[in-house]
Amino acid sequence: MNDMRILERDVDANAIKIAAKGVQVYYGDTHAIKDVDVDIQDKTVTAFIGPSGCGKSTFLRCLNRMNDTIDVARVEGDIRIDGEDIYDKAVDPVQLRAKVGMVFQKPNPFPKSIFDNVAYGPRIHGLAKNKSDLDDIVERALRRAAIWNEVKDRLAAPGTGLSGGQQQRLCIARAVATEPEVLLMDEPCSALDPIATAQVEELIDELRQNYSVVIVTHSMQQAARVSQKTAFFHLGNLVEYGETGQIFTNPEDPRTESYITGRIG
Amino acid sequence: MALSLTGYVVLAVLVLTIAAFFAAKSKAKSTANGDVRLLHSLPNYYGYNAAMFTAVPALGIMLIWLLAQPMMIENSVFKLIPERIVEEGSSRGLVMSDVRRVAEGLDIAVAQGAITDTEADNIRSEARDIRALLGEVGVALGSDVEPEVLFAAQEYRTLSSVGAFWMAVVVLGVAFIGAAVSIVVSKADFRARNTVERGALALLILAASLAIMTTVGIVLSMLFESINFFRLHSWTDFFFGGSWAPNFRGDSDLSILPLLWGTLYISVIALLVAVPIGLFAAIYLSEYAGPKVRSAAKPLLEILAGIPTIVYGLFALLTVGPALVSIFGRGDQGLLGVEWMSGATAVLTAGLVMGIMLIPFVSSLSDDIINAVPQAMRDGSFGLGATQSETIRQVVLPAALPGIVGAVLLAASRAIGETMIVVLGAGAIAKFSLNPLEAMTTITTRIVSQLTGDTDFASPETLVAFALGLTLFVLTLGLNVLALYIVRKYREQYE
Ligand SMILES: Nc1ncnc2c1ncn2[C@@H]1O[C@H](COP(=O)(O)OP(=O)(O)OP(=O)(O)O)[C@@H](O)[C@H]1O
Ligand SMILES: [Mg+2]
Predict the structure, then answer these.
(1) Could you tell me the pTM of the whole model?
(2) Residue whose CA is closest, atom 16 of ligand 1?
(3) CATH number of the domain where residue A98 is located
(4) B356 near B312, Cβ under 8 Å?
(5) pLDDT tens digits along B173-190
(6) Is A111's CB within 8 Å of B377's CB?
């Protein structure tokens, strides 16, 4: 793994952006997340890895309260963003989600034009002062998501008419257009070719300058390339969490080692 | 006697069918030397195949025979009746029904033992009072039986029994041949399963085409009557005339336009009531209501849809109409102190009640459509920090819009075709007016009124009902086709 070199980036003691303690998630009777403690740092890319069904998406959805939309889901424990308990009654989940953006595992463009898809968030939150401002926001978001060149001539075409990988990048553009402080990305490159993947990884690295990014991925190489911190989930437990270089070169837990070397998963 | 012979034939065919089933099954097994795995199909399929080839052609021929035989017999018997009787008895149909009745009477008399079979064939009206004879066995005749009619009836009986005999022969023969052939071919490599499959397919196609054929039949009968109408009345008056004034002494104004105006006016009011309320109810139920509320409210709304429309009509006439009159009418005693509305029947009365009737229709269709919008779409919107109502307005409803438009069009076509509410609630005056507090009439109410009471199916005043019905049919059919097209197009979007 040559990529390991990249990890030698300095991860200074950044401020803690998200602090989760004793998080439990139940889907009806299924216990999907078991007592997870994790501190996610600001201006850092954190990767969640683990075998399918281990609860990565579930945990990610706790961080912006998307589990509220699932009737059977129940979240316990304490999750703080910038020291504020996001499950507190006083917190408005709508406000929270504007701050904590999300790219979903399955691309879900709205049945609207490409432009309107990206402009959706800025319009709702009044981020654009006028039409040309909005045009700029949309163009910048599409450029950052590495899809501008493909769609610049068909901004009025429906977003649902794009290919799977294009839809995925459109959803990334849609999420970054809202300028969230934290960006949660659930397998954002699962349908992308290597070139687009590299561009999205570049975007993630760029976002790190100002935001904190959490990315779920099934690609060890990707986790190693883009992240500074890595969390390994297994059967709903957080098995190991630490510096990415540490996890990939010298894991403490035998389960982590067998997963990254390809023996479980 | 013919009937019971038919019964025996059916019974025999069924017995033969069962026998063929088991014979083919065991024949197939024996050709495979008892090893079922060597057969192309499971043994039962050989049985089904044989049963199918025994029963279906035989019973099919029987059915056609039973339909065709009376017509052919009537044709040949009719030649025996001289012109004289037809002229007196007014029409061929009436005389023939006399003949059939006498023939039936003779059958019954024979069955009860009042006369013997040969007597029935040779009896002469000069020799015996046939009317009294048949009266004794319970067949009352309107007049004395003419010798020619009696002779025709006897011929009718003879031909019927000959026909029935040959039918039995042919049907049993076909059944035997079918059974024999299908048993003979039941060898190990015969593809019985595929033939049975084709049989099942044919059955399904038959059912589907029967449904379509009846629709076509209905349309055609309407069409023929409408053509009769247009022979008697000018089509320009019907489609472009300005007034509706049927006059049973003839020379009526029969224009559809005033009726169409009333129909559309009432429908528009109904939709103005039903669409917002139904849609909002659907949004509440599908997006906001908890599972408990939903499980209670949905069935309740659907019960509304099951109320017979005549009940809504009564509601319009007895409750809504008078309530509206007390608001907009009665001069100084009224709520508003105005005299705008004189009777309970009015466009507004019918429109409001029809709107109430359509609410559950709109809401349950829209509810299904809104639920079909994938959750991922909502998640995407929530994930960007949108509120629930923003999500509904900007994502869910636009996504569901084509389907909702389809639902509204379906509701419109129901409103246009609705009858009982407008019969009771709308009034009977055909006119062009914009005032919703006046009584007006619709296409459906006029169809009802043109066909009730003493009707003469040769006058344009009656036949116009068919032309009205056909126009209504074309109108609602067009709306339904459009609605289904839109709904289907929308479905594809997510599949
Ligand atoms: N909406 C739901 N209702 C019930 N159970 C759910 C729901 N979503 C997830 N689960 C269960 O929770 C567990 C964790 O699911 P989750 O989607 O978080 O897995 P994941 O780690 O993201 O897997 P993958 O890598 O395949 O996306 C699984 O066992 C799954 O069956
Ligand atoms: Mg997942």
Answers:
(1) 0.74
(2) A55
(3) 3.40.50.300
(4) yes
(5) 999 999 999 999 888 888
(6) yes
